[in-house]
Amino acid sequence: MQVSTYLKDTYREQVDTQVIAVGSREGSPWVAVADCLFHPQGGGQPADRGWLDGSEVVPVRDHESGLIVARAPEGAGLPVFTEGQPVKARIDLEARKTHAALHTAGHLIEAAGRTQGWTCAGNIHFPGQARIEFTADRPDARLADPRGREELTAALRETVAAAIAEDLPVSADHDEQGQRIVRLGALHAAPCGGTHVRSLADLAEVAMPTLKVKKGRIRVSYTAAHRPR
Length: 229
Hints:
This protein is α+β, with helices and mostly antiparallel strands. It contains three helices and 15 strands. The protein folds into two domains: 87 residues, Beta Barrel (Elongation Factor Tu (Ef-tu), domain 3); 131 residues, Threonyl-tRNA Synthetase, Chain A, domain 2 (2-Layer Sandwich), CATH 3.30.980.10. β9 and β10 form a beta hairpin. The longest helix has 22 residues. It is elongated, with a radius of gyration of 20 Å. The two termini are 34 Å apart. The relative contact order is 0.16. InterPro entries: Alanyl-tRNA_Editing_Enzymes, Thr/Ala-tRNA-synth_IIc_edit, Transl_B-barrel_sf.
C-alpha cells in the first residue's frame, strides 16, 4: 500500500521508506515506494524534482497500477531496485515551496474571482505560466473596456491582499465521497490534490497584471513566491 506523504506535509524534505513495486512501461523502468514523497504532475501543478538513494527521478502517476512511480529523467538511467529494499527519498524543497505557493495563490485568485460573479473554467500553476481562467456568470461591460478591466483587476488584488494580511489558514479534509477538499479559512473551498502552504501569510510577491479577455474567457495571469522563513 502506498501512502501519499506529499499531501500530509508540504515541507517534508526527505523520508526513509522501502520499495513496494518495480516494473517497466514502454521500455522505461520504474520503481514505487511505500511513502511517496513525490508529487506527480497533475491538477495544474508540475511534478516535484526528486531523488531515490541519490539518483534523480521524475514521479509519474501510473494509471494501470494506481501507484505513483518514479522514473529516470529523459536520457538518464535508473539503478536496479528490488521489492522490499530500503531507500531514502528526497525532494527539491525550494522547488516544492514555489509550486505550493503558486498553487495556493491560484486558489486565492479563484476565490477573488468568485466575488465578482465568475466561475473558474481552467487553471495552471506552473512557474512562468500561472493563470486562472474564468467565465462570467452575468454580463459586465467593464470587461470590454481597458479601464474597466484594470478596475476589476484592482478589486482582485485588494481581495487577495486582504486575505494574505488576515493570514487565513490553509487546510485540507475529505468530503463524504472521500474527495480531498482544500480550504482557505472560510473564504474558499475546492477539490484539490496539490500541495499548499501552511497559511496565506506564507505567500509573497503575489502580483497580477491587468486581466485579459480571450474567446469569452477572463484570463488572470499571476506570479507568487513563498515567503522566506
